[in-house]
Amino acid sequence: MRGYGDPESGGLGYGDPESLAGVALERGYGSPNQEALLYLELRSSKVHHRGGAKVQVTGPLSDNLSPFRLSIQVEGVLTYFYSGIASQGPNLLKRRGDLEAYTPPAPAGSYTITLHCGPNFAQTYTIGTALKIEPDNRGSERYLSRRLPPSFYQTGARFNGLEPVDFAVSKPARPPYLHMILDIFGRISQEHVGSPQTVLSRDHARGETDLSTESTLSFPDSGVVSVGGRRYTYTHSGSQIVLSGGLKRNLPKLSEVVFYAP
Prior knowledge:
- The chain has helices at 140-146, 177-193; strands at 41-42, 46-48, 54-58, 69-74, 77-80, 94-95, 98-102, 109-111, 114-117, 123-126, 131-134, 197-199, 210-212, 222-227, 230-237, 240-243, 256-259.
- It is mainly beta.
- A hairpin with a 2-residue loop joins strand 6 and strand 7 (98-102).
């Protein structure tokens, strides 16, 4: 915030030392009526489309503006992020200097996040980093967790090949509670001891090198993947995985593609 100062002394002014922009952005003592500029960004900008992915917003944000809310437009509707705290709803609190929130379900795409804060959440700021929502990847740990209850429970598809390809073109429907709980357990297991996994989105012929997949979320830019039980080195761009050598045999749609981490 720049103040009203004497141009001959550099233009730094005399104003409100309690700037909402914080010490890091204060230039002199700017006007208390001037809107503060907050430079906020996401620590990680890519998340899956099913909702519940954690995002962290970092930047010079005064505690005097709490509580906070984050929102995006989902299919034309203002939709708030979740706090992840019981009875807290969308109202967010800073943790270790960052705002932590959990995404709502949304179609794949690039989203602008708005911060709401101050009395009645009347002040709004735009987060500098766009949120990129991508189709979710898959994990064997999630399907394993779904197979634990008896078969008459609604747990969702219990095997990878029974779940159709989902490019996240629309907002996902909310699954039954048991399905959600088992998927959370499986996702945590995958993040700690598993590997990113996806499926082929079409049939592929022997010799092909460009693989069309459902998702490449969480896959490193290059490395080794297991495709149809064989290992290949790869790079990826968007939802395509490019192999260094052609496929050794024909592979049907929904064949597993798993990142290999020795």
